[in-house]
């Protein structure tokens, strides 16, 4: 049905009981002594977190928190689309669609919905208000699984344009981090006459060159940063290589073992070694809520397919230039290079923060909200 329908999460208790049994029956692998996180997720860390998932984590608490936010589903291009939709009390608020990445869900935005939609109630200027739409990416969570091939970033962006049309938003802004930093600029390329501006964090397309000529267009400092980024990416890219080439092989393990899925999703959330990172820790119940949503909806494998589906569109090539004004927020650990970002985006805003992390809405929601407001405030003034 094309008309959005109200949606409420109500997971059967039997599904939660089954999860607890599977956690209790985990068959743990061995681990080499003294390797810590150098071979992957630390066994001690994972065992402690899995025990908390089974004995201390309360899904119903987080289910209730999600259900306090207006949720809807609609069908676009043959695919169920789940989304949060919070209208601002300010009548002149700017519509804004926000897109999560992997291994996230729309749950990541709960801490920023209030400040974005009702700045007056959060010590801000009511002129900075937004009507916020936060969809679940097709294949993820309650928008999944996908039912056919082809759901890459471009098709997701086209679905977002249609979603905003159905909601009556002809002109709007877009924001996204991680994979959302690919989808949101693509939305600007697809509908430049409708998108007033694109704001991204954790910009995924501007950390390394995709052709030998691009290095020559960078400053000396940027070229050195690009080389460091390439050295960093190689030992951290295994997850992306697997999901962008053979996601179905991975799906069997993720769909059958909750601890396997937790380990697979955990590396990005904890920055590989939580004892050594300077980034703001992500609350462990938030990590578990995202993983639990994937588990209960059976969409870990479907979400992984996004990497393969987008491969032919994004990996190894520079996106087409976009005329839409673009703002880039860089948080602690982000590796975007402005010279590369400007090859495919009209960058009018570039900010850098010394705290937070890759998941800015979870690790530095105050800074993210402030930067979104600042970026769109300049566009409203034009």
Based on the structure given, which CATH architecture is correct?
Answer: 3-Layer(aba) Sandwich
Task: Assign an overall shape.
Answer: globular
Terminus-to-terminus distance: 38 Å
Number of helices: 16
Total strands: the figure is 9
Secondary-structure element order, N to C: EHHHEEEHEHEHEHHHHHHHEHEHH
The CATH topology annotation reads as Rossmann fold
Give the averaged pLDDT, no decimals. Answer: 96
Which structural class do the helices and strands define? alpha/beta
Provide the helix percentage. Answer: 40-55%
Strand order of the largest sheet: 1-2-3-5-4-6-7-8-9
| Estimated radius of gyration | 20 Å
The CATH class designation is: Alpha Beta
What low-confidence regions span 5 or more consecutive residues with pLDDT below 50?
none
| Major beta-sheet overview | 9 strands, mixed
Q: Beta-sheet strand percentage?
A: 5-15%
Fourth-tier CATH superfamily name? Alpha/Beta hydrolase fold, catalytic domain
Number of domains: 1
Pfam families: EHN
Protein name: Alpha/beta fold hydrolase
Active site: 178, 307, 358
Keywords: Aromatic hydrocarbons catabolism, Hydrolase
């Amino acid at each position: 049905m094309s008309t959005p329908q109200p949606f409420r999460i109500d997971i059967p208790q039997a599904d939660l009981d089954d999860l607890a049994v599977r956690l209790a029956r985990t068959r743990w692998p061995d681990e080499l002594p003294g390797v810590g996180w150098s071979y992957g997720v630390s066994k001690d860390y994972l065992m402690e977190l899995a025990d908390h998932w089974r004995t201390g984590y309360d899904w119903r608490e987080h289910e209730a928190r999600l259900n306090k936010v207006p949720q809807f589903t609609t069908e676009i291009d043959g695919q169920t689309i789940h989304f949060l939709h919070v209208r601002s009390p300010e009548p002149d608020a700017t519509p804004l669609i926000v897109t999560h990445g992997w291994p996230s869900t729309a749950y990541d935005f709960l801490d920023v919905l209030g400040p974005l939609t009702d700045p007056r109630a959060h010590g801000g200027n009511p002129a900075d208000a937004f009507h916020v739409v936060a969809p679940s990416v097709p294949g993820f969570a309650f928008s999944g699984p996908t039912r056919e091939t082809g759901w890459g970033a471009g098709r997701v962006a086209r679905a977002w344009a249609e979603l905003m049309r159905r909601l009556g938003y002809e002109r709007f802004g877009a924001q996204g981090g991680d994979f959302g930093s690919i989808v949101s600029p693509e939305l600007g390329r697809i509908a430049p006459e409708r998108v007033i501006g694109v704001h991204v964090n954790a910009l995924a397309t501007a950390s390394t060159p995709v052709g030998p000529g691009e290095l020559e267009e960078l400053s000396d400092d940027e070229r050195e940063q690009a080389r460091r980024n390439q050295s960093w990416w190689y030992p951290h890219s295994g997850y992306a290589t697997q999901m962008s080439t053979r996601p179905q092989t991975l799906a069997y393990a993720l769909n059958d073992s909750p601890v396997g899925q937790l380990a697979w999703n955990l590396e990005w959330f904890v920055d590989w070694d939580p004892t050594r990172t300077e980034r703001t820790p992500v609350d462990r119940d938030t990590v578990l809520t995202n993983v639990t949503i994937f588990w209960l909806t059976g969409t870990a494998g479907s979400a992984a397919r996004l990497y393969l589906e987008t491969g032919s569109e994004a990996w190894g090539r520079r996106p087409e230039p976009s005329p839409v004004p673009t703002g880039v927020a860089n948080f602690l650990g982000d590796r975007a290079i402005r010279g590369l970002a400007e090859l495919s985006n009209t960058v009018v805003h570039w900010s850098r923060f010394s705290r937070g992390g890759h998941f800015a809405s979870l690790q530095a929601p105050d800074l993210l909200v402030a930067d979104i407001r600042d970026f769109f405030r300049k566009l409203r003034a034009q």
